């Protein structure tokens, strides 16, 4: 294992520990308050929000398969990660600029940031998957990306559950639904909405909307990139361990 791979492995192990931490008191309190708020919303509102996010994610998810690069078949882990970091910087800067523009444009333009940012996040995941050598035309690879997305933007409680699935993906993937419509869209939309609510609401405010939008989008994209890198590192090192065991 090269020094770069050793560094990546150490970073992944530290990340794995964070993903498995039990929810703190503040995590539990925030989750409780958000659950009370969600309980006040009429069921038809939940259904409408779920349907909207489902259709947005499905549209980007299945549309992006036609524009995403082919999986990178060969390359060392350091070479792949150099390319991945370049893509993260590109999408992070694009999202930050987009957040500043929509944040400065008032309430209606600020609302437009939601689908724009969501599209950039999904496209980043497609590019990262391909650079790590995974074929996103595979249905299970697209569901893997949805789990990575959920891991990045969830409460610690849901993060623990989602991480457990990703850590055992080779066996878990066999239990996945045959139809993407059977995916738990409601949990995905609720956790995602709850996670970014405060930042996105502040972005709609006059005067501070532009800087808040730029900073929030920068941080959210950076967080997604970090989560994705460590998730694919986990698969890379698991495959390497399996290869060495067969040798």
Shape type: globular
Beta-strand content bin: under 5%
Order of helices and strands: HHHHHHHHHH
Distance from N terminus to C terminus (CA atoms, Å) equals 16 Å
In short:
By secondary structure, this protein is mostly helical.
Word description of this protein:
- This is EcsC protein family protein.
- InterPro entries: EcsC.
- The mean pLDDT is 78.
- The chain has helices at residues 3-19, 25-40, 43-63, 77-104, 106-131, 139-152, 156-167, 169-172, 185-203, 209-246.
- It has one domain (3-246).
- Helices cover 79% and strands 0% of the residues.
- It contains 10 helices and no strands.
- It is mainly α.
- Helix 4 packs antiparallel against helix 10, helix 6 (139-152) crosses helix 10 and helix 9 (185-203) packs antiparallel against helix 10.
- The two termini are 16 Å apart.
Question: What are the salient characteristics of this protein?
Answer:
247 residues; mainly alpha
SSE inventory with pairings:
Elements: H1 3-19, H2 25-40, H3 43-63, H4 77-104, H5 106-131, H6 139-152, H7 156-167, H8 169-172, H9 185-203, H10 209-246
């Amino acid at each position: 294992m090269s020094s770069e791979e050793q560094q990546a492995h150490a970073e992944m192990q530290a990340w794995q520990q964070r993903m498995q931490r039990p929810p703190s008191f503040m995590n539990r309190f925030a989750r409780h308050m958000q659950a009370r708020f969600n309980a006040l919303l009429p069921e038809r509102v939940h259904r409408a929000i779920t349907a909207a996010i489902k259709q947005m994610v499905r549209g980007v998810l299945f549309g992006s398969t036609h524009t995403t690069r082919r999986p990178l078949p060969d390359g060392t882990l350091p070479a792949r990660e150099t390319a991945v970091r370049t893509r993260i910087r590109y999408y992070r800067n694009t999202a930050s600029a987009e957040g500043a523009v929509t944040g400065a444009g008032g309430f209606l333009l600020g609302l437009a940031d939601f689908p724009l940012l969501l599209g950039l996040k999904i496209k980043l995941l497609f590019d990262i998957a391909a650079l790590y050598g995974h074929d996103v035309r595979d249905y299970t690879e697209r569901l893997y990306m949805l789990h990575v997305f959920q891991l990045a933007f969830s409460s610690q409680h849901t993060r623990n559950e989602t991480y457990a699935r990703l850590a055992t993906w080779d066996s878990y993937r066999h239990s996945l639904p045959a139809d993407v419509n059977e995916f738990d869209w409601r949990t995905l939309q609720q956790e995602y909405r709850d996670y970014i609510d405060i930042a996105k609401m502040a972005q709609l405010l006059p005067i501070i909307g532009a800087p808040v939008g730029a900073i929030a989008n920068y941080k959210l994209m950076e967080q997604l990139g970090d989560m994705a890198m460590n998730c694919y590192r986990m698969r890379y090192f698991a495959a390497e361990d399996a290869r060495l065991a067969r040798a």
